[in-house]
Amino acid sequence: MIKNINLTLKIWRQDAPDKEGRFETYEANEISTDISFLEMLDIVNEKLIIEGKDIIAFDNDCREGICGMCGAVINGRPHGPQRGTTLCQLHMRHFSDNEVIIIEPFRAAPFKVIKDLVVDRGSLDELIKTYGYISVNTGGAPDGNAIPIPEEIAEKAMDAASCIGCGACVASCPNASAMLFVGAKVSHLSLLPQGKIEAARRVLAMVKKADNIGFGNCTNEKECEVTCPKQVSIENIARLNREFIKACFCSTAK
Amino acid sequence: MLLDSKVPSGPLEEKWDRHRFEQKLVNPANKRKFNIIVVGTGLAGASASASLAELGYNVKTFCIQDSPRRAHSIAAQGGINAAKNYSNDGDSVWRLFYDTIKGGDFRAREANVYRLAQLSLNIIDQCVAQGVPFARDYGGLLANRSFGGAQVSRTFYARGQTGQQLLLGAYSALMRQVASGKVTLFPRRELLDIIVINEQARGIVVRNLINGELESYEAHAVLICTGGYSNVFFLSTNAMGANVSACFRAYKKGALFANPCFTQIHPTCIPVHGVYQSKLTLMSESLRNDGRVWVPKNIGDKRNPKQISESDRDYYLENKYPSFGNLVPRDVASRNAKEQCDMGKGVSDTGLAVYLDFADAIKRDGKDTISKKYGNLFEMYEKITGDNPYETPMMIYPATHYTMGGLWVDYNLMTTIPGLFALGEANFSDHGANRLGASALMQGLADGYFIIPYTLSAYLAGNSFPEVSTSNADFKESVNNCSVQIQKLLSIKGKRTVNDIHRQLGHIMWDYCGMSRKDSGLTKARIAVNDLKLEFWENITITGKENNFNQALENAIRVSDYLEFAELMIIDAIERQESCGCHFNEAYQTEDGEARRNDETFCHVGAWEYSEENENPIFHKEPLLFENVKLTQRSYK
Ligand SMILES: Cc1cc2nc3c(=O)[nH]c(=O)nc-3n(C[C@H](O)[C@H](O)[C@H](O)COP(=O)(O)OP(=O)(O)OC[C@H]3O[C@@H](n4cnc5c(N)ncnc54)[C@H](O)[C@@H]3O)c2cc1C
Ligand code: FES
Q1: For residue A1, what pLDDT is reported?
Q2: How far apart are CA B362 and CA B291, in angstroms?
Q3: Is the CB–ligand 2 distance for residue A38 below 6 Å?
Q4: Which of A146, B44, B94, B132 is the most buried (most CB within 10 A)?
């Protein structure tokens, strides 16, 4: 059922990384419940432009829940109230008339605010750069069917690989831990025979890097799993721990 | 200008091998002396950056997003083709080649397409080695499915997230090279200009999207891997930031633009719901493997679909095309949906939708099987529409999705500017007038992993390069021009928003230069687009500052290019007096309403050269020679 609702938005505004931020209040009226959250922000921005005011900056690109570019904290929850949903896929039918919505950027020490709701998540690329790969050059790969992989293993690897790198796990964690992100990558690769060869080196390098960047440790709060728009399971953190212990005690990797 | 495609001589099957052998090589020790710029980090850009860095070149890689992993390739759902013939159902390199040529309605280069089919084999192997978790069967071997336009099962997939997994594979290879120091990443940068010195592409000017600074970078060659321009229609399945700017600015610097009017409308998207809609969502066409497309037989039958009995339904694709049924190519499926809606049989409140029904498939295979194949797509559909496709048929409608047109490139993927290459969707590519499903991913990766490493090396080995630095006058002049344009945009201070103008442009293009076209409509559209362009430069308003993170400004720059580019599309559509593939001119159709080609006069690539502002572009032809396939009227009956 399409209907229109009126909302009050309290949005974090910050002009630049080194400037102080503040909440500002905006009215969003006659919002169709059929549109998406970001489309609602588009409408607010269109109005701001006509009024000659600086628009609310927010990252987004695919608007299909797959690129991992969007994200903000909505009423205290990264990506908003709906489970398994990125902010761009959240629709206004989940809000009610006259609701007050608080919108803030992802907050975590390693994610600096660039402007308003836009943060710098370059630290996640840093983690992948630190051995989040299989060392294989282009060319010379064996036939794709040369190594059969049990279907359930391939599926598990796929579950882990579906991480979109949005950073909501970090933003939801009281310790700003990136364990779910690292765990997903370590799991994806170490489950597969191709990735096993470097599994020990990989896990040691990635965990060390996460520490160096300043991501916190996991104390089993499980907020990340609840928040993850792709519902990546904390089973991957358990696997990360296993891989880590294995690498420490049963391998020569450092 | 003579357009030399540089297709090697000899039998089709041997061309690429022979060409590789005849190419000059760069001595390994010399590779590190060459700087390469790659613009774009989708499948094409990421795979090219990684592969070139592995060879030893110094690569600088740019993208708009905050991370290279977010390029729009990430959104591809359905799958990637390869002629592995793992299914033993009659596939071969030749068949993939033939299907692609035929699907493209005989408007692509034979030699390129054949090479693509050959390389498809290596792509799958490469991706598996990187750890791409393709779907597997219970024996542990790679699973395949069939995809629009093909009668064999040759499509490899990773649930409904194939593009994501392939891109993460290429991205991880790229990040490995970043770690090794061979690639330097420049995220949140947008290309504004290509620098051509002594008739060679030698650098780029980009806007740093965080602080607004205009930055210059020099190189020995530049690779444009910036994707497609579907957003000229405002609403499309492409990402919000997708743009024509990089390609268009290369065009303005002298690179020819080929077949701009060849744009693909995808048959299975979630229908438009309202004016504030910002983009359209694709439902992978793999759904057509199990879903049945239908509309009510009787005009105005507004009953709930469940109450409409079998005899009151028209499964129009199955009836009209018995051998391909729901799997006809995209252009055919899209036009038929439009036709049904034009007849008044469309469903949904808007009348602009048809059903895609899974009831039979669920009955046949069980809900679990269907959910395993399409679970995430069904979920996405429900999130957006609030309807559950397990219970009630999906509603779909065509939307712009892919652009076959792009920068003209020769067999080496080089544009008409020496040293400027175009890869992936950005080039006019191998798909002729219509792309078959699951072949864009294949093409992007073939270009990046397996073609450019050879052809770029040959270019570098075969040319001399005068010293160039970013303090060179050409860079300064370009930075100055870009800055003038930006200030002009900020100073207009009119009454309309850029989005508002863009939306209007989209309507014009969709109505007159979309799924079906008429000369009279195109002429009208050209005038309307021109008027809109004038209005844009007089009446838009943008807020924010030049030297700050400013998304309003970014958008305005993109739309300014779309407005100019739209005219080129229209001019190209008028020029091509035939129907072929996705270019459907109503004056040229068969009795059954199928596209009627004119091979006598239009069996060519139409490539446009920029002349001057407000002047007509100059037309060039690359004749297409078919030595290995016979041109036939496509028939999917
Ligand atoms: C929803 C959807 C589903 C699809 N599904 C399939 C499928 O199942 N199978 C299939 O084969 N194909 C599919 N396609 C098509 C396919 O995904 C694309 O054609 C292909 O991924 C394009 O890859 P690319 O590398 O050329 O460009 P993209 O992946 O679009 O990457 C473009 C890159 O260029 C950068 N860029 C763009 N402009 C600039 C600029 N001005 N300055 C700097 N950087 C810039 C961007 O930041 C980005 O990194 C799908 C497409 C869509 C939209
Ligand atoms: S915009 Fe891509 S995930 Fe939300």
Answers
A1: 55
A2: 10
A3: no
A4: B44
* pLDDT > 90: percent of chain A: 97
Query: Looking at residue A2, what is its pLDDT?
Result: 61
> Which A residues 150-169 touch B at CB under 8 Å?
150-151, 154-155, 157-158, 161-162, 164-165
Q: Are strands B292-296 and B313-314 parallel, antiparallel or unpaired?
A: antiparallel
Taking the CB of residue B522, how many other CB atoms lie within 10 A of it? 20
The answer, for B345 touching chain A at a CB cutoff of 8 Å, is: no
Residue closest by Cα to atom 33 of ligand 1:
B40
Does A193 touch chain B if contact means CB atoms closer than 8 Å? no
Average pLDDT over residues B224-253: 98
In short, whether A70's Cβ falls inside 6 Å of ligand 2 is yes
Fold designation for B268-401: Flavocytochrome C3; Chain A, domain 1 (3.90.700)
User: For chain A, how many residues are written?
Assistant: 254
DSSP B614: T
Minimal-distance CA residue of chain A relative to B237: A62
A155 vs B contacts (CB less than 8 Å): 133
Q: For residue A203, what are its two tokens?
A: 């896990």
Task: Give me the amino acid identity at B13.
Answer: E
Sign, CA torsion B111/B113/B117/B120? positive
The answer to whether B175 contacts A68, with C-beta atoms less than 8 Å apart, is: no
| Residues 17-56 in B contacting A (C-alpha not used; CB under 8 Å) | 47, 50-51, 54
Measure in Å the smallest separation between the Cα of A174 and chain B Cα atoms. 24
Do B268-401 and B473-595 fold alike per CATH? Answer: no
Give domain limits for chain B.
Answer: 268-401, 473-595
**Per-residue confidence at B594, pLDDT binned at 50, 70, 90?**
confident
Residue B596 falls in the annotated catalytic set: no
Chains A, B: CB contacts under 8 A, how many? Answer: 225
pLDDT value, residue B274: 82
Q: Which domains does chain A have, with CATH numbers?
A: 4-112 (3.10.20.30), 122-253 (1.10.1060.10)
Distances (CA, A) of B282 to A117, B18, B235, B635: 27, 40, 12, 26
Residues across chain B: 637
Prediction pTM value:
0.97
Ligand 1 lined by B76 (C-beta under 6 Å): yes
Share of chain B above pLDDT 70, in %: 100
Identify the helix (H) or strand (E) that includes residue B505: helix B498-512
Per-residue confidence at B190, pLDDT binned at 50, 70, 90? very high
Average per-residue pLDDT in chain A? 97
Nearest CA of chain B to the CA of A173: how many Å?
A: 22
User: Residue B135 — very low, low, confident or very high, per pLDDT cuts 50/70/90?
Assistant: very high
- pLDDT at residue number B148: 65
- Of the listed ranges A75-89, B92-106, B275-289, the least confidently predicted one is B275-289
pLDDT beyond 60 at B456: yes
- Beta carbons of A65 and B74 less than 8 Å apart: no
What are the residues whose beta carbons fall under 8 Å from the beta carbon of B586, sequence distance 6 or more?
B516, B517, B518
Assess whether pLDDT exceeds 70 at residue A26: yes
